Amino acid sequence: MLQRNSDYLCIGLAVVLSLTLMGLPPERQEAIAHGLRSAAWTTGQWAFARVIRFARGEQRSRYLSALNVQLAIENMRLREAAAENLRLRQVLQFRQRDQVRRVIPAEVIARDPDQLFDKLVVNAGSDLGIQEDWPVVTPDGLVGHVDEVRDHSSVVQLIFGSRVSALVQESRAHGIVSPLAGGNRFELRYAEAANLIEVGNRIVSSGLGGRYPKGITVGYITEVRERERDPLLKEVFLESEVDFWGLEEVFVIHSASDSERPESSP
Questions:
Q1: Over the range 192-206, which residues count as b (16 or more CB within 10 Å of their CB) and which as e?
Q2: Residue 174's closest CA among 159, 160, 162, 164?
Q3: Does the predicted model carry a pTM greater than 0.90?
Q4: 169 in the Ramachandran plot: left (φ > 0), alpha (ψ -120 to 50) or beta?
Q5: 155: which residues sit within 8 A by CB, 6+ positions away?
Q6: Does the pLDDT of residue 88 top 80, yes or no?
Q7: Which of 37, 95, 113, 218 lies 20 to 30 Å (CA to CA) from residue 6?
C-alpha cells in the first residue's frame, strides 16, 4: 500500500511539474532545458572520470602488488646470499686454522628421517680418497666420523652414537663426552671435582684414541653440579653449537695416520 501511494505521488509531481513548465514563457522553458542539459553532461563527465580513475587505481594497485612480490623474492635471495657468504667466510677461517690436515668438503645429500640412527649421507666417498673413521666437522665443531664409505658417497655417524675423549680447554681437565637423550646436549663424564670447571668453558677433543684430532670443539659447558654420592667427581653438562639436523655442508678431515686406532663406540 505504501509503495502504491509513493508511485501515485511521483506521478502527481511529474504532472504538476510538466504543467508548470508548459505554462512558462518560451524563453524560460529554453533556459531550464539548457540547464538540465548542462547538468546531465556534467554528471556524465563526472561519472566517466570516476570510472577512469577507478580503472587506473586498479591497474596501479596490481602493479604495486607485483612489484611488492618481486621485492620480497629479491629480499629472500639476498638473505640467502648473505647467509651463504657468512658460511663461506667461516669455512675459510676454519681451513686457515687447520692447515696441517687435508680437509675435504662435502654436501649433505640425505639424512635419517626418523632420527633413530643419528646418521647423515654426504656426497664424497672413495672417489675422493675418504676412508672409514675419518672425523667429520664444521666450523662450529665436531659432527661425527665416517661410518661407511661408498663410491661417491659416505655415511656419517654423528657423535650422538659414540663417545668422545675430551678435555676442558681452560683447565685441561679430562673426561668422556657422552650424548644425552634429546637435542644436542651432552655430559662430560669422569670430570674430577678438584679441577676448575665453569659454565661457558669450551670442551674440545683430546686426541686420545686416534679417531678425532686434538682441539676440535665439541661444545660449551652449560651446567656444573656437585655429586652428592661421589664428591670426587662433578656433573658437567654441555651443548654443541652444531645444528646437526640442519647441516648443509660438512668437512671430512684426512686422518693423520691410518694405523691409529679409533675410539670404541658403546
A1: eeebebeeebebbbb
A2: 164
A3: no
A4: alpha
A5: 119, 120, 121, 146, 147, 148
A6: no
A7: 37
Per mean pLDDT, which range of 11-15, 68-72, 85-89, 143-147 is the poorest?
68-72
Place of cell 681451513: 95
Residues in CB range of 133: below 8 A, 6 or more apart:
145, 146, 211, 255, 262
Confidence of residue 266 (pLDDT cuts 50, 70, 90): very low
List the one residue out of 188, 178, 205, 121 whose CA is nearest residue 155: 121
Rounded to 5 degrees, what are φ and ψ at 25?
-65, 155
Q: Using an 8 Å Cβ cutoff, are 211 and 173 in contact?
A: no
Environment class of 239 (CB within 10 Å of its CB; exposed 0-12, middle 13-18, buried 19+): middle
C-alpha cell at 150: 661408498
**Contact criterion met (CB below 8 Å) for 204 and 215:** yes
